[in-house]
Amino acid sequence: MRDTRESRLLLVLLIAIAFALITVDIRGGQESPVDGARQAAAAVFGPVENGVAAAVDPVGNAIGAVRDSGERHTRLAALEKENAELKAKLGSDDRNRNRLRELDTLLKTAGAGQYGIKGAQVIAIGAAQGFSWTVTIDVGARDGIQRDMTVLNGAGLVGRVTTVGPSTSTVLLANDPDFTVGTRMEKSDELGFATGQGDSPLRVQLLNGKAKVEPGDRLVTFGSRADKPFVPGVPVGEIVRVDPAGGGLTRNVYVRPYVGFTKLDIVGVVVQAPRSDPRDGVLPQKPKPAPTVTVTVTPKPTGSGQPEGEQARSENQTGQNQTGQNQNGQNQNGQNQTGQNQTGQNQNQGQDQGDATP
Q1: Does pTM top 0.70 for this prediction?
Q2: With helix as H, strand as E and coil as C, how does 44-55 read?
Q3: Which of 151, 157, 237 is closest to 200 using CA atoms?
Q4: What would the pLDDT profile of 255-277 be if each residue is shown by its tens digit?
Q5: 3-state secondary structure of 23
Q6: What does each C-alpha distance from 60 to 46, 66, 219 come to in angstroms?
């Protein structure tokens, strides 16, 4: 379009009309007389605007990304930190599966003994009050924990509570040299006292010096008065060595505990004792012995001591000789019979000739 006087006048006129429409639209508010024209224009040019926006959107996003790159980097770093903390809290899948197995075994043991327990996790180890074998658990007075409560896990006796804080407690482990618990032997009911020896088996002093015991016999807790510090029936361990009876009033045996004190994680504090003594009901079932397969080999008689192959060949030869003798005997019998027949025929012929002579 050429730059002429008419074109300039047309441009001024269009600008004046545009300002007039804007003024009328502003004064009209929601009832603007140009609202209908605006909707019509939106219906016509809306698809075009969407297409143009889609075409230029990557450019706009790139500009926005450059502008907000600092904020996004900070947010990404925060998310990575939260993810790392969550992984550290949850642990690996193997650890979670192992903890679930420990919790399941603990619940089964508590159910078998009818113990009311408060579940806890070992959060620290070490000497809290000068003890050599202690652990700290994450439950305390706020959770109903009291001093001298029995602590167990799915395998058996762990120890007893010695110190209680608001949210944590200290447990003296059963293998500590200062730990002593009354025990009762399975079936025979022989009583004794078990004392910890650190990494070595527990030493149990039986009250009966003539008690009949042997490796493999199992022991449980005898229980205390008012069930403190020990409830009855908690598995302690099994005998691995027996001292020879020396004629004394007591006798010592050594017991391997069921609990692995160096790898404790999930434990339970007995907050409610059973109504009755579970006796031996909490002990695990003994594995059934594998069946013994007996193979009996009966050797064949070898006669004169010859090998079996040579003996078989000798028997075959003997059988063949006997068969040959039988055949010879039959042949001889046949020949004898033939000779007798011939002799009889000759005699008959002689008699016939004698009768024919005048």
Answers
A1: no
A2: HHHHHHHHHHHH
A3: 237
A4: 999 999 999 999 999 999 999 99
A5: helix
A6: 19, 10, 77
